[in-house]
Specification:
This protein is α/β, with parallel strands linked by helices and 639 residues long. The protein is built from 23 helices and 18 strands. Helix 5 links the parallel strand 3 and strand 4.
């Protein structure tokens, strides 16, 4: 194993990192640092979060800066505000003994005027989220002509969040003779395309195996009935009293519900999702980093770019739909050489997805046995005893109170006193689990009857998806593009971001159908999104159509065939004709078919209007229009 000195790190940086506790370089640092210290060297590095990436690119970037030139010389792109601030903080620590070196974090949700002022005063390294950097470039404030090194950290996350066009625009403004370093946890086709386009003869450095999970993480799966998921989560949290982890949920609604239940049941927990304001998000993260919270319940989108040290557990409250997301989730524990545990609470229907994840991460899940009430009480008892052993006693402060305490407790024996102290902390778990039923492990014969009411609600059938109402504060929009057009969540997000350059768009739930899609947008932004997207024509001449979806729009997609004509009609892939006429069940609403008024009552005498021109009374018996009467259908004769 080499030392930092052997890798060529300068004395000023060595002094700073030794004070921070760095002793020997980690594998990714050993590979990247010497290569990046050279010129014209492009790198694609595949490594999990928590493997020492920031130091791997940060140390050589700082060392190459010419402090005398007050112009941007290095650019670091990252997906989220939190990661942007984290990287900038680390770079400032590494450059502690380099006088005059300026690092500027640039991100949305903060005053753009102060960032403009700092850029005008001169900086050496810009750490930025793509959206805010594009904004500053359009204002002619961020000038990238002098950039010599570009780093894209968590590149796969940036692409998943729809920043492809922004990244392309930024890289086009950077000199071609730059060094470019791309860090990613997974190697997706999109990463390969970006690398091929903007990197020259890039060296590929893989720490571990492509797309695999961290070696320091143990993967455990608890298989339970869907109705028992929350009870299983509580048992797992109770079985690990010192837990400090993130619980991942798939939707904002589920995230808030689980967090509320945990708080109500006495756990130190809070939620992190897209509906929180930036101030609320910052407060939650501050509490979590300071360990005032033990459990953070979060969505994948909200947790992107979070960099929190010493997480003991990651809990998957159900497996993610995108298998690569599991790699990112589990990579948030087991960092910097420490071990971590990634737990999945699943039902029988998710076993296939679990096997696919095992193939991708090249590791097997351990099928865990749900802790019994007795085992949980034992763990909690050990925790109470450990806490008593470790408690710090301030002899001077407590001395004057001791005589009175001794008199009060002198009638108790040592054994009685220990029992009472322990019981004071322990009784809550003892009372709960003494009568709690054990959670059954489902057998394969139960699979047919397995139901997930909560997840069914969020990820329902095609009919449920089309009939959903928008969440509060959002407008639900219809898009005439779906899976057969190659449009998935990433492409929809990218389409919106590309055409809404002037503002940051808040996107809610996305429901993908075979030939069209639904997505939710913040109410105030919905008219702007509709206006922007309805002016878009895709390659091949296909026009994008976006409109407000009705609560029961009837735009069903069973089999991907049925479509209604007229405004908003969509087309089968590769055809210029409307698809087959909708069935009665999937018939479009009156509003969608162009009617502005509600239908009037059906009258039985509507036929008379054709004969009442001269107000003469009609003669004879009224015709019988019932099927039993003269208007009944005649059977066709077979020939």
């Amino acid at each position: 194993m080499k030392t930092f000195e052997e890798l060529g790190v300068s004395p000023e940086i060595l002094k700073a990192i030794k004070e921070m506790g760095y002793e020997n370089p980690m594998p990714v640092q050993e590979e990247v640092i010497p290569y990046l210290l050279g010129n014209g060297n492009d790198v694609v590095a595949l490594a999990q979060t928590g493997t020492g990436k920031t130091a791997a690119f940060g140390l050589p970037l700082i060392q190459k800066i010419d402090v005398k030139k007050r112009v941007p010389q290095a650019l670091i792109l990252c997906p989220t505000r939190e990661l942007c601030l984290q990287i900038a903080g680390d770079l400032n620590d590494y450059s502690k003994y380099i006088d005059g070196l300026k690092v500027l974090p640039v991100y949305g949700g903060s005053s753009i005027e102060s960032q403009i002022r700092m850029l005008k005063n001169g900086v050496h390294i810009i750490v930025a989220t793509p959206g805010r950097l594009i904004d500053l470039m359009e204002r002619k404030v961020a000038k990238l002509e002098t950039i010599g090194d570009v780093v894209m950290d968590e590149a796969d996350e940036m692409l998943n969040m729809g920043f492809t066009d922004s990244i392309n625009s930024i890289l086009e403004k950077v000199p071609e003779d730059r060094n470019t370093l791309m860090f990613s946890a997974t190697m997706s086709p999109e990463i390969s395309r970006i690398a091929k386009k903007y990197l020259h003869d890039a060296k590929e450095i893989t720490i571990g195996t492509k797309n695999e999970g961290s070696k320091n993480v143990n993967h455990i799966a608890y298989v339970v009935h869907a109705k028992d998921k929350y009870a299983a989560l509580k048992r797992i949290a109770d079985y690990y009293p010192q837990i400090y982890g993130i619980i991942f949920c798939r939707t904002r609604k589920e995230t808030q519900e689980i967090a509320d239940k945990l708080i109500q049941d006495g756990y130190n927990a809070d939620s992190l999702h897209g509906e929180l304001s930036q101030a609320q998000r910052d407060l939650v993260m501050q509490k979590f980093r300071q360990r005032h919270l033990q459990l953070l319940v979060a969505t994948d989108v909200a947790a992107r770019g979070l960099d929190v040290n010493d997480l003991t557990h990651v809990i998957n409250y159900g497996l993610p739909d995108d298998i690569e997301s599991y790699t990112h989730r589990s990579g948030r524990t087991g960092r910097a050489g420490k071990t971590g545990i990634s737990i999945a609470i699943i039902n029988l229907r998710e076993k296939g997805k679990m096997r696919e994840i095992e193939r991708i991460i090249n590791k097997k899940f351990i099928i865990g046995e749900m802790p019994t009430g007795k085992q949980i009480c034992e763990q909690q008892l050990i925790k109470v005893i450990d806490d008593i052993e470790k408690v710090k006693v301030n002899e001077e402060e407590i001395e004057s109170f001791l005589p009175g305490i001794y008199r009060k407790l002198e009638w108790l024996s040592k054994e009685d006193l220990i029992k009472r102290v322990v019981s004071m902390e322990f009784n809550r778990f003892l009372d709960y689990y003494s009568n709690a039923p054990e959670i059954e492990t489902p057998s394969t014969s139960d699979r047919r009857g397995e139901r997930e009411p909560k997840e069914r609600k969020e990820y329902g059938s095609a009919r449920e998806k089309t009939e959903r109402k928008a969440e509060k504060g959002y407008t639900r929009l219809f898009l005439n593009l779906g899976k057969t057009d190659g449009f998935y969540a990433n492409q929809i997000i990218e389409l919106i971001n590309r055409n809404m350059k002037k503002q940051r768009t808040t996107i809610g739930r996305i429901d993908l159908m075979q030939n069209f899609s639904f997505f939710e947008i913040a109410e105030k932004q919905a008219p702007d999104v509709i206006k922007a997207l309805n002016n878009v024509t895709l390659n091949g001449g296909r026009k994008v159509i976006v409109e407000v979806a009705g609560e029961n729009s009837g735009k069903s997609d069973n089999g991907g065939r049925k479509r209604s004509g007229g405004k908003g009609a969509s087309f089968e892939k590769g055809e210029g004709k409307p698809a087959k006429k909708a069935t009665k069940e999937g018939k479009a609403s009156r509003a969608e078919r162009g009617y502005s008024e509600a239908r009037g009552p059906k009258g039985q005498d509507d036929w008379k209007q054709f004969f009442n021109h001269d107000n003469k009374k009609l003669k004879g018996d009224e015709p019988d229009f019932k099927e039993e009467g003269w208007a009944r259908r005649k059977k066709k004769l077979l020939r």
